[in-house]
Amino acid sequence: MELLKKQPTSKAPADRFTGDAWVDMVHAGEEPSRLRVGRVRFSPCARTHWHSHAVGQTLLIVSGVALIGTRDGRVVEARPGDTVHTPPGEEHWHGAASDHFMEHLALSESSGPHGGPDVTWLEKVEDATYGAPRSASSH
């Protein structure tokens, strides 16, 4: 067993996020593990840019109200305890609703045995896309 040292919180980069978000890397596995876990906290309206993950991504909503959108125009509202999975290669974005902070755990894997690139970052999510009608989680 190993108690892992907490890494410093970092500000999410403006070339990948709109608004203010902060990232705590919880775990970045070393070979043979490919697991990556990050705790991400978003201010109201903050969101990622469009992106996809080579091996998919799972989000566990910890607090607040999350919005997760896909290229087909679907925007899902998720709440604490909800888990959302995006399959490998699916272009999506996620962030906080306009009136709540939001925190999630992001779980993903590096795509290769030597830690190849996991995320393909794309363009900014426009306000109209962010503000599109949404479907609520089952709560």
Strand order of the largest sheet: 1-3-4-12-7-10
Mean pLDDT: 91
By secondary-structure content and strand pairing, the structural class works out as mainly beta
The count of β-strands is 14
What order do the SSEs take from the amino end to the carboxyl end, as H and E? EEEEEEEEEEEEEHE
Q: What does the radius of gyration come to? A: 15 Å
* Largest sheet properties: 6 strands, antiparallel
Q: What's the overall geometry? A: globular
Which structural traits does this protein have?
139 residues, mainly beta, six-stranded antiparallel sheet, four-stranded mixed sheet, 1 helix, 14 strands
How are the SSEs placed, and which strands pair?
Blueprint: E1 10-11, E2 17-18, E3 21-28, E4 35-42, E5 47-48, E6 51-53, E7 57-64, E8 66-70, E9 75-78, E10 83-86, E11 92-96, E12 102-109, E13 119-121, H1 127-130, E14 135-136
Parallel strand pairs: 9-14
Antiparallel strand pairs: 1-3, 2-5, 3-4, 4-12, 6-13, 7-10, 7-12, 8-9, 8-11
